Give the backbone structure.
Amino acid sequence: MLDSTKRRGLLAGGNWIVDHVKMIDVWPAQDALANISAQSDGNGGGAYNVAKNLAKLGCGFPLAGVGLIGRDADGGKILQDCEAQGIAHAAIQATAAAPTSYTDVMTVTGTGRRTFFHQHGANALLDLPQFELTRTSARIFYLGYLCLLRTLDAVDASGCTHASQLFAQARAAGMITAADLVSNEASDFAAIVNPSLPQVDYLFLNEYELARLVGTGASEDPAQLQAQAREVLQRGVCAAVIVHLPQGALCLPRHQPAIWQPAVQMPARMIVGTAGAGDAFSAGFLLGLHEGWDFQRCLELAVCAAAASLRDATCSAALEPWPTCLAFGRNLGFYASLSLT
């Protein structure tokens, strides 16, 4: 077993999705009509987005993916994109049992607000046999998204999930583990996520997902966010809970004070779409984590990467090398810091 200090790179497992992004003039009422002004295809899903974002940030360490795609045109696009981005894709397997997962992303022009219509496809079949973690020398194992991987999310009679077993295997192999959630209203967050927490080093989630997980109302109040994050940390997260929201981000490490990073003051005129901003945030944080940065520096790059991503309707097109993203955010400035007492 290699320990994490002798490992290098990131292995991204989970959702590999093609996003079909459509820009619309308004969000319509039931049975009403909205006009599509533009459309494009892009990468989607936690694993795909994080791996591609790290490539575009110029992370400088090896990237690899593991997952399931269909034997179709969308699956071919994913493999071609991985090849172009330098993401090793031997473990992204094709199946004839289901199509490549896709999402129709409806983004309202002028606000950047988006709504997702998702086809689970091949991602729903992803399970432990597709992961051969003893073969990788990656330092970080990332899995995203919990609550959108039907087989890995399934809770057995003992209350465990296959995802929890997967994280345990990754930690036993010497990897740092990271997990991300999805804002899925149909999922039982607690039943799906709690079994994995004692095997997860870093948990990424937004304020809505945090509230769903702890069973309380969503809040943007720093003190309440900290209390909610502490409850999740106490459920077993090994290193830190990281919460991102429009105002900024909170990192609550185990045995250390909470850290707050305000968001970039992004002008509304520069925001084209918000799809993928959370994954850009996670990629920025994970880049810093891999390189041994302190949490404050990781958070600063994370919010700058998230802000940079807002300049395009797709998840990764607007990302640039990380020094450029960092300079972009610093030049715009950050909102006032909030007190986390």
Notes: The two ends are 41 Å apart (CA to CA). The mean pLDDT is 94. The longest strand covers residues 36-44.
